[in-house]
Give the backbone structure.
Amino acid sequence: MRGHAQRTNVVTGERGWGPAQASPFMRRPRNPCVARLLLQVAFMSEAQPDLEARALEALGSVSDPEVGMSIVELGLVVGVAVDPSLGLVEAKLTMTSAACPLGDQIARQAEERLRAVSGVREARVELVWDPPWRPDRMSAAARKALGWGR
Amino acid sequence: MGQVSPAARGLEPDILARRGLLLVVGATAVTGVLAGLSRAGVVAAWGPRYGAAHGPLFVLGVFGTLIALERAVALGRTWAFLAPVAGASGSVATLAGLAFGPWALALSAVALGAVNIAIVLRQPAAFTFIMLAGSMVLCVGSLTWAMGRPLPDVVLAWMSFFALTIAAERLELSRLAPTPRWASRAVVGISVIVALAAAAARSLEDPWSRLFGAALAALAAWQLSFDLARRTVRGVGLPRYTAAGVLGGAAWMLASGATLAFTTVPPGGASYDLVLHAVFVGYVLSMVFAHAPIILPAVARIEIPFTRALYAPLLLLHLSLLARVTGDLAGHPTLRRVGSIGNVLALATFVAVVVGVKVAKRR
């Protein structure tokens, strides 16, 4: 399989894949195999854009509580991959701050909302730190609401 | 937790462990309050040891441990939880009179420093470096305190930890709105001065403490001018409430900094009470009230549905602090005492509102 890329699982801090030790404070990492398959074998079908749009809409219902804006508008959604035939959705999110404890909660909320979308049987959300967030990732509407000019 | 098994309620052991930690922090806050009230002469004194524990219990045992828990959750590594666990154990040990108590509290500061280094490595940015600087000053202050340095000589270091940690968080948030580049650079410069002055000051009478006060006031002025809260306070619901807590707190930090910069603050006097509590109650506790509905669900899955009733304890906090500070400035010990009791009532009201809204939701 191509590349066990140098990615750090935000939940446990583990690099690469493998079961983590059970610990009193941290959960075990989610199984990455399905996600890898998704990213490598991107199924293209007529159903895909539709499911992707619904997935994005579901993600739009998750908001950052400090600002009161959706994670889509804030540019926190790095990527969404869908497989309509299997009903699988994988989303990659980033956070503006590595010091913020909200990442886990927002990722969990996003997973819940994705699972509620019709046609979705399984959803995985992963937090990534690369590419780092920049203000120009925000949508035009968000920028306007927060006082940016053009 | 009740008769229902955690597994049946879908609670994972890590969440239960964090809730246990929060319970210890809560108990530490209660004893810290009682220690404070005994210092104010409101309750019968327990003895000098408990009175003297008021500051360390709140700074390291309550607020420091809460921040350490947040950072550990953010980093997501098991070793990071050493910081809040050491903080909680240190509080219990200090109350029990065990000699290693202060050392455990100091250890939590050191562990938090390590966590902040890991955060800088994950995201090297101005704000993560400022957070690390605040953490380093906390380490120095806490270790020297555990070694026996008098409390008034470390309070500046402890104050700077909160000022810098919060400034870093607010600087990071300010990226969401158009902030002039000179302002983003200025806050970094002010933060460096805060850190250096806090580390250099040998005592409150040191000239460095005046520079610290001026820089603290500048940091507060920055927040009042450029913080994202200026925009979000015009919104509705939770973001508006959070912004109100942030801005109100910044105003108190300005008062504290100005007092340090322009007056002499002898330890134990009225202005000492003002300087410390404007930051620890006016700024830090206000931030805790403002962010509890955001942080508790994120850290321990304790949902707090927003209610406008939350404004009541926030208002009571700021009004009672106004009374306390007026008592300090005018030399009215009774007014100061009334203000202190008001601070405690605000905290109790906050807990009551949070519990009340959860009970109401369950029905």
